[in-house]
Amino acid sequence: MSDAGTDGPGTRDAAWFMRIGEGHFPALLGIEISEVGDRSVHASMAVHDRLLAPNGFLHAGAVVTLADTAAGYGCVAHLPAGAKNFTAIELKSNFLGTAHAGRITAHATAAHLGRTTQVWDLAVRGEDARTIALFRCTQLIVR
Q1: Which residue ranges of the chain lie beneath pLDDT 50?
Q2: Percent of the chain with pLDDT over 90
Q3: Alpha carbons 111 and 133: distance in angstroms, whole number
Q4: Taking the CB of residue 35, how many other CB atoms lie within 10 A of it?
Q5: pLDDT of residue 1
Q6: What DSSP string runs through 1-35?
Q7: How far is it, in rounded angstroms, from Cα 60 to Cα 136?
Q8: Cα separation of 12 and 106, whole Å?
Q9: pTM (2 d.p.)
Q10: CA R_g for the chain
Q11: Angle at which helices 60-77 and 14-21 pack, to 10 degrees?
Q12: What is the C-alpha separation between 124 and 102, in angstroms, rounded?
């Protein structure tokens, strides 16, 4: 996403993020971006055996990757004028449950869209709408 902020307004929609993710880690895990809105991003991922830890639970790293991807794409979609890119500087997570099958979804919402940092809050839920994890991600804006 080098120089991600140089695209024109409106070009960073869900389809654009799916294209730039091709061949990268989000695509490897099967992350799909379904919506990029005003101060929000919706993403999902199918749960399958390769994403489970040896104990049979969904691997925390897979859940973190879904959340981090949604927050990162949200940041790129909302970069301020003059910004070239971003980097995550903090990610907090609280795990409240797990999933063994189906799809998990992440809904990212901007808590702060500043000139030097952005903060995104996320909830990851299973198909039954139970919250699996809560996240807060802070990104540094690169100029």
Answers
A1: 2-3, 5-6, 8-9
A2: 92
A3: 17
A4: 11
A5: 54
A6: -TTGGGSPTT--SHHHHHHHHTTSHHHHTT-EEEE
A7: 15
A8: 18
A9: 0.92
A10: 15
A11: 120
A12: 13
Q: What is the bridge-based pairing of β-strands 131-142 and 103-113?
A: unpaired
pLDDT at 11: 76
Q: Tell me how far apart the alpha carbons of residues 121 and 36 are, in angstroms, rounded to a whole number.
A: 15
95: amino acid identity, one letter: F
Assigned token pair, 41: 């991003």
Looking at residue 7, its pLDDT comes to 52
Token readout for 7 is 């695209």
Residue 142: per-residue pLDDT: 97
SS3 annotation, 75-139: HHHCCCCCCCEEEEEEEEEEECCCCCCCEEEEEEEEEEECCCEEEEEEEEECCCCCEEEEEEEEE
Q: Write down the pLDDT at residue 13.
A: 95
| Number of neighbours of residue 121 by Cβ within 10 angstroms | 17
What pLDDT was estimated at residue 10? Answer: 57
CA dist 39 and 108 (Å) reads 8
Q: Which one-letter amino acid corresponds to residue 143?
A: R
